[in-house]
Design a protein that fits this description.
It is a single chain. It contains 4 helices and 6 strands. The chain has about 130 residues and is α/β, with parallel strands linked by helices. The longest helix has 12 residues.
Length: about 130
């Protein structure tokens, strides 16, 4: 789940992950589409939700939200905090903050065992510059 103010870099974060997965399509914000889908040569689908325009959890059923969460691939959910009871039981919460000096702060919190392992691996990457707080 990605959270942060408008312009904080949520879509830019997804763009970076997509590049790492070898996706060369232009990654755009799904604000008006609600869901965008991308494929790569390795067959790992990337799903990018933006729930900002949804009003009720009932609308999640209409967009295939639950099927995608239970399926393969990487799923990113912007504005998931609107429906906290509908988040999966195991997920990473990435909070992005844009400081006055244009510095971006990225905070990651793991909810669940799989997410803890993923965050641990991310922290071990010498290029991640993650620090424990």
């Amino acid at each position: 789940m990605l959270s942060g103010d408008l312009g904080a870099g949520k879509t830019q974060f997804v763009q970076g992950v997509a590049r790492g997965l070898g996706i060369r399509d232009q990654i755009t914000s799904p604000t008006f589409n609600i869901l965008l889908y991308y494929e790569n040569a390795a067959g790992v689908p990337l799903y990018h939700f933006d729930l900002y325009r949804l009003d009720t959890p009932l609308q999640l059923e209409d967009i295939g939200y639950y099927e995608i969460l239970d399926g393969p691939g990487a799923t990113f959910i912007e504005w998931g905090e609107k429906f906290p009871s509908e988040l999966p039981s195991d997920y990473l919460e990435i909070t992005l903050t844009l400081e006055d000096d244009q510095t971006r702060i990225v905070k990651a919190c793991a909810y669940g065992e799989r997410s803890r392992r993923l965050l641990f691996l991310w922290a071990q990457d010498s290029k991640s510059r993650l620090v424990k707080k």
